[in-house]
Amino acid sequence: MGIVTPGIVPATTLLAEPAPAWLGRWTAFAADLAFSDIPEAAVERARLVLLDSLGVIAAGMREPECRALAERLARRTGPAPAIGSGLSLDPRDAALVNGTAGTTLELDEGNQYARGHPAIHVVPAVLAAAQETGASGAELIAALVLGYEIGARIGIASRLRVTMHPHGTWGTVGAALGVAKIHGADAAMIGQAIGLASSLGLSTSRRTMLEGATVRNTYAGFSNQLGLTAWDLAASGFLPERDGIGTVYGGILADDFSPEAMVEELGIRWEIARNYFKRHAACRYTHGALDALAQIRAEAGPLDPDSVRSVEVATYVWAAQLDHPAPGTMLAAKFSLPFALAAALVRGEANTDAFRDEARADRRILALARRVMVQEDPTMTAQLPGLRPAKVTLTLADGRKLSAQALTNRGDTEDPYSADDVREKFRALAGPVWGAERSEKIVAAVAGIDRAEGIGGLLGLVA
């Protein structure tokens, strides 16, 4: 008897489908990849990504809820550091805490083409796995590059549902692949690990970021933890769906999965080499407008925030969504375009302190935020993801109008921060945690990580 209900496919039809060709190419590529196969440009960017991630994790670990979580989980003792806290945890708990801390300040790197933040979903997991296995620094970098690559490519190949937050989704697959690589898995075991991980993504809600619900900060932490778990499942003999990634990202969490994108220029174009770094401590969607505001201030000179009668912002859809002027939490403030612009005008920059309690209680900032009007420009939306445009117009009390437009965000591949810029960001975040002397030792250790026999020295510095 056949099925007549629309949209339901018989098992005999489903099970007759062959394994996807791209998956075989990917698992063979990942299994065979040696550190020496990775071009220097990608290796150099991976070092910077690792350094940047360590800095944002350590700074985020100082936030009360991250510190409290680390202390709570430290009751289950283990050898893995909760970075910057002085506490040692079970490796899976450390991966959760480090991934969570790394997203808390909204300063973790990202990839505009993947529409997400691949590294913070991978770095804590591969650090935990490398510590467990005694992997070399070169093996750590290779695992980071691979985990970043597959996570980012799933983001490129699919379109997450608009109600979902990208954290905690395809990053779990990246973490699993990185961990499998650290463990020296062959192609078959790599396929099992990433297939299992495809079923372990979270049902993330986009509204968490708009409401300031800090459960959102845990999504990347859970991806790291689940990436480690996926390897344990694979090594224990659990079996994945034949094409879990195609199923999950082709119709469950996302739509329009394009297998071709998974292997396009594989081994030639490296996603980690076209990442971006962040200096504004706010959602990436606010950065175009913040950069345009910086242009206005550079050209006009000092501006009295009280003289700004109104601020008009034209931008793309996802930035225009961030229109709430009175955020209730630090996280919500980082996802408020009116607040971010007002805070930058009043305080001079959108740094970490610009979104804390003191700033959110500042009546000048709140009053100015209510004078910011945000509007989607469909022509700007059409320029995604290659460009992230925004136009900002200030109307002053004397009637003057000051305007500037940004097509890309500072830090994007089209307008990148230099390696020195990234290191300076690290020093600014790491200094209050470790002090200047130890911070410089961490910079040096990461710069030479691919020549290190193990990562114990680096972990000792950040522990």
What's the SSE blueprint?
Layout: H1 11-15, H2 21-32, H3 40-60, H4 64-73, E1 80-82, E2 87-89, H5 91-104, H6 123-133, H7 137-157, E3 159-160, H8 171-182, H9 187-198, H10 207-211, H11 219-235, H12 244-252, E4 254-255, H13 259-263, H14 287-300, E5 308-315, H15 317-320, H16 330-334, H17 337-347, H18 357-360, H19 363-369, E6 372-376, H20 378-381, E7 390-396, E8 401-406, H21 419-447, H22 456-462
Parallel strand pairs: 5-6
Antiparallel strand pairs: 1-2, 3-4, 5-7, 7-8
Give an overview of the whole structure.
- The protein has 463 residues and is of the alpha+beta class.
- The protein folds into two domains: 19-274, Orthogonal Bundle (2-methylcitrate dehydratase PrpD), CATH 1.10.4100; 284-406, 60s Ribosomal Protein L30, Chain: A.
- It contains 22 helices and eight strands.
- It has helices at 11-15, 21-32, 40-60, 64-73, 91-104, 123-133, 137-157, 171-182, 187-198, 207-211, 219-235, 244-252, 259-263, 287-300, 317-320, 330-334, 337-347, 357-360, 363-369, 378-381, 419-447, 456-462; strands at residues 80-82, 87-89, 159-160, 254-255, 308-315, 372-376, 390-396, 401-406.
- The strands form three sheets. The chain has a four-stranded mixed sheet with strand order 6-5-7-8. A two-stranded antiparallel sheet has the order 1-2.
- Strand 1 (80-82) and strand 2 form a beta hairpin.
- The chain is globular.
- The protein starts with 10 loop residues before the first helix and ends with a helix.
- The mean pLDDT is 96.
